[in-house]
Amino acid sequence: MTNLVSIFLYDSNAAVSKAVLDELAAPLSDDERERAARFGHAGARRDFVTGRFLLRHALTRHCPTCLPKDWQFVIGPYGKPALADDSPALQFNLSHTKGLLACAITEAGAVGIDVETLERKSDLEKLARRFFSPLESKALLALPVEQRRERFFRIWTLKEAYIKARGRGLGIPLGSFSYTFKAADALQLQVHEGEEPGACWQAHSYRVGAVHRLGLVLPGSAPPRVPALALESFWLGEPEHRAQLEWLGGTLELPGSIVEVG
Ligand SMILES: CC(C)(COP(=O)(O)OP(=O)(O)OC[C@H]1O[C@@H](n2cnc3c(N)ncnc32)[C@H](O)[C@@H]1OP(=O)(O)O)[C@@H](O)C(=O)NCCC(=O)NCCS
User: For ligand 1, atom 16, which residue shows the shortest CA distance?
Assistant: First the structure.
């Protein structure tokens, strides 16, 4: 088993023409195309199609004998997609937010990834009181106001990444686990209830470009198992995208900041 995690990022700010969208949809399955057609919102449809294109090409980079159009997926009981044939032992997870798509692929086990834009206009304190554990919201509110936005999205993306790694979505109560900061860059994940005895997870948080935060969670113990992170960029057909992706790649801060899991 390898601890390598590849993360593929796509800057979804740029407009995509109908012709390119058709090109992106070409490797998708009939089911995926039907699902895409059901999205009422053009942006959501584009994100779904682009995400699946990105996923299929990323999987083929790991396993070049399988063409992008030939990957088949199954959906878990809580909605997490996985490979129908798990013989390559590859696991993946996808996330979309305004302006960014991210896909993580690994052989290290169940992986969860989440991206969010720091520009989201919401009452963050109110959201924290509603969704974070009491420990997390208390720590957030104790911070100086100017540090709260960054901390809020760190926690948010890491919480999402954890429930996505486990694949159970909101079947895991968001207050049943907490991320605490022992120091600025040393985080600890504490699971208060509902976890398998002896389970061990590691979590990493990255700033991507100026306005995005990325959370990544996968199984494993402390520092020796922190994955090597391979950031790869993708060119989705229109030359201007290449430049944006390189820009994103250039500003991802490595390595991750979180190692301990309880
Ligand atoms: C899927 C879920 C876990 C995350 O949704 P989200 O953050 O809105 O969306 P993301 O873009 O990050 O992730 C969606 C992708 O995750 C994957 N996914 C779907 N269900 C999943 C599950 N149960 N577990 C892991 N991954 C899942 C899919 O690939 C999906 O993309 P696709 O449909 O285009 O293939 C969602 O069901 C959820 O429960 N969200 C909680 C929202 C919330 O209140 N968060 C508060 C955080 S503090």
Answer: 94
For 20-44, the pLDDT digits (tens) are 888 889 999 999 999 999 999 999 9
Provide DSSP, the chain: ----EEEEEEE--S---HHHHHHHHTTS-HHHHHHHHH-SSHHHHHHHHHHHHHHHHHHHHHSTTS-GGG--EEE-TTS-EEESS-TT--EEEEEEETTEEEEEEESSS--EEEEEETT--S-HHHHHHHHS-HHHHHHHHTS-HHHHHHHHHHHHHHHHHHHHHHT-GGGS-GGGEEEEEEETTEEEEEE-SSPPTT--EEEEEEEETTTEEEEEEEE--SGGGPPPEEEEE---SSHHHHHHHHHHHHH---S-SEEEE-
Distance from residue 144's CA to the centre of ligand 1 (Å) = 30
- The whole model's pTM is what? 0.88
Task: Classify domain 5-261 at the CATH topology level.
Answer: Ribosomal Protein L22; Chain A (3.90.470)
Q: Look at ligand 1, atom 44, and give the residue with the nearest C-alpha.
A: 131
Residue nearest (by alpha carbon) to ligand 1 atom 41:
170
Q: Per-residue pLDDT tens for 129-157?
A: 999 999 999 999 999 999 999 999 999 99
